[in-house]
Design goal:
Its main location: membrane. It is found in: Cell membrane. It is a multi-pass membrane protein. It is a single chain. The chain is built from 16 helices and no strands. It is mainly α and 400 residues long. The chain has one domain: Up-down Bundle (Growth Hormone, Chain: A), CATH 1.20.1250.20. Helix 4 runs antiparallel to helix 6, helix 6 runs antiparallel to helix 7 and helix 10 runs antiparallel to helix 14. The radius of gyration is 21 Å and the shape is globular. It starts with a helix and ends with a helix.
Length: 400
């Protein structure tokens, strides 16, 4: 658990060290107008996750056959090379190509989650997944700050080079210190994916969780793809843009770091599906006023408040899948969830770029609020199945 936490920490830090500043890095690779910059930024963000969405089911099948640790090693080593090469890219097209290759090899956090999900008691899954999530959150929190300092002192390329070194450290930590008890399964012995879904108590809930993961990621990534440009429009001293963007990007992580274990424990007691629904409603409440902001302080406050919602959402989804997915299908089901998450990462930046270009940056917040609001109604049928069966059990016990 400890070394997987550190693996998630460094993976999250490496990701967030480069992502908020990608549009600013693109500006150094050519001369682009606003429309071109928005479109290229969205493409550079989305291409990694498009590749991930396509290949994740393949890696998930291998994870169920050979174990999740080999997948963590594959992901960390692949990202070591691709992210390092991104820092050496001579032009925007080489950068976009490298980010596509990066997507084909990513997936460390997803497989780390599957390792923990398969090893902890179901009744403690919420707290375990919430605690593991803090590793990614802490890394995501510190990443923009460190990335901003590196970008200001040594240029934007330095963030990619340092991230590549960090992913090499993740590979070595996982190789020598992470142990997984897993017996390889032959293709003939593997339970078919269709059978996995038939074995689930609440298949409609699982599909709802897939869609929820996609919507959450689309909402978050639609903002991340342009947040540095939005901050640049609010900061008078342009020399401080990189640092200010790093601070604003990291603010939700401060609250999420504190709230994730608390909400994870709460989900074990009251039900992860309830915590998830409340988190979605709170996200809508946060995004709507973001469309009315006038200065960076208002943006910072609302993003900090959004951290409570973030602390409830993804850990609750992981806890629900841990509880209701058969262990024989963890690799494939978690990989499908990763594919939906990647699809959100594809659609989010593209939608954000289009809305920002046609209207303005603030209109993107209204779009994300609408997405999260609609998702509540998509998730309700699956959660009703859980509540209905829980009510039937209580009634049966009372009758007996």
């Amino acid at each position: 658990m400890v070394f997987l936490w550190f693996g998630n920490f460094m993976t999250g830090m490496g990701f967030s060290m480069t992502m908020p500043f990608l549009p600013l890095f693109l500006q150094t690779l050519g001369s682009f107008n606003k429309w071109q910059l928005n479109l290229l930024s969205g493409t550079a963000f989305a291409i990694t996750f498009l590749a991930k969405a396509i290949v994740s089911p393949f890696w998930g099948k291998l994870a169920d056959q050979y174990g999740r640790k080999p997948m963590c090693l594959r992901a960390s080593l692949g990202m070591t090379f691709t992210i390092t090469l991104c820092g050496l890219a001579p032009n925007v097209w080489v950068l976009i190509g490298l980010r596509a290759i990066q997507g084909c090899f990513s997936g460390y956090i997803n497989n780390a989650n599957a390792i923990i999900a398969a090893s902890v008691p179901v009744e403690k899954s919420g707290k375990a997944m919430g605690t593991l999530a803090t590793g990614n959150v802490v890394g995501t929190l510190l990443g923009p700050l460190l990335g901003g300092v590196l970008a200001g002192m040594f240029g934007y390329r330095s963030s990619f080079l340092v991230t590549g070194a960090m992913m090499l450290a993740v590979f070595l930590l996982t190789l020598f210190f992470v142990h997984e008890e897993f017996a390889p399964v032959t293709k003939a012995e593997m339970v078919p994916t269709k059978q996995i879904f038939k074995q689930m108590a609440y298949p409609r809930l699982i599909w709802g969780l897939f869609i929820t993961t996609m919507v959450i990621q689309a909402a978050n990534m639609s903002i991340t793809s342009f947040i540095s440009l939005l901050v640049a429009s609010m900061v008078k001293n342009q020399a401080q843009v990189a640092f200010a963007a790093g601070v604003v990007s990291s603010l939700p992580g401060v609250v999420t770091l504190i709230a994730s274990p608390i909400l994870g424990d709460l989900s074990d007691r009251v039900g992860a599906e309830k915590v998830l629904l409340v988190g979605l409603v709170m996200a809508v409440i946060c995004f709507i006023p973001m469309s009315l902001i006038h200065n960076i302080w208002q943006l910072g406050f609302l993003r900090a408040l959004l951290g409570v919602s973030d602390a409830a959402l993804l850990p609750a989804i992981q806890a629900l899948m841990t509880r209701y997915v058969p262990k024989a299908g963890f690799g494939r089901i978690f990989s499908y969830n990763q594919s939906f998450q990647a699809m959100g990462s594809v659609s989010g930046p593209m939608l954000g770029s289009i809305v920002a270009s046609v209207f303005n940056y603030r209109a993107v917040f209204l779009m994300t609020a609408l997405l999260e609001g609609l998702n509540v109604f998509v998730l309700l049928p699956g959660t009703r199945d859980v509540w209905r069966k829980a009510t039937q059990k209580v009634t049966k016990k009372a009758t007996v």
